[in-house]
Amino acid sequence: MNSFVKTYALLLVAIIAETLATSSLNASKQFTRLLPTLGAIAGYLVSFYTLSHVLKSMPVGIAYAIWCALGIVLISIIGVVYFKQHLDLPAYIGLGFIVAGVIIINVFSGAVKH
Which residues contact 32 (CB under 8 A, 6 or more apart)? Predict the structure, then answer.
């Protein structure tokens, strides 16, 4: 596996782990439920560990921007689907701008080595 693919694969693992951890954090009911609490802790540990490896080959600002942006979109989807939270049109438009920002960074920025 080449370095570029490995870096993005690890970043994707970090994003998914963080998203699952945040979902577990919400389900833990302020750390009063054991399994979701343990899931949150485990998810954040996996997320930060894999993100630390991403930072070996990607600038921290770019990695964090992608990590945060995709995490925001994924956790918003989980909130709507699983936790039955409602978003309005401006929220969806804002999420679209976040996705557009990640695309612009990855396609046009010289800070990301392809």
Answer: none
Full residue range of the structural domain in which residue 33 is found: 3-108
Half-sphere exposure of 29 (CA within 13 A, CB side): 4
Number of domains in the chain: 1
Q: Hey, is 74 helix, strand or coil?
A: helix
- In whole angstroms, give the CA distance from residue 93 to residue 49: 32
User: Looking up tokens 């954090």, which residue turns up?
Assistant: 25
Position 12 in a domain:
yes
Could you give the C-alpha distances from 90 to 4, 73, 97, in angstroms and in order?
A: 34, 14, 10
pTM: 0.85
55-105 pLDDT, tens digit per residue, is 999 999 889 989 999 999 999 999 999 999 999 999 999 999 999 998 898
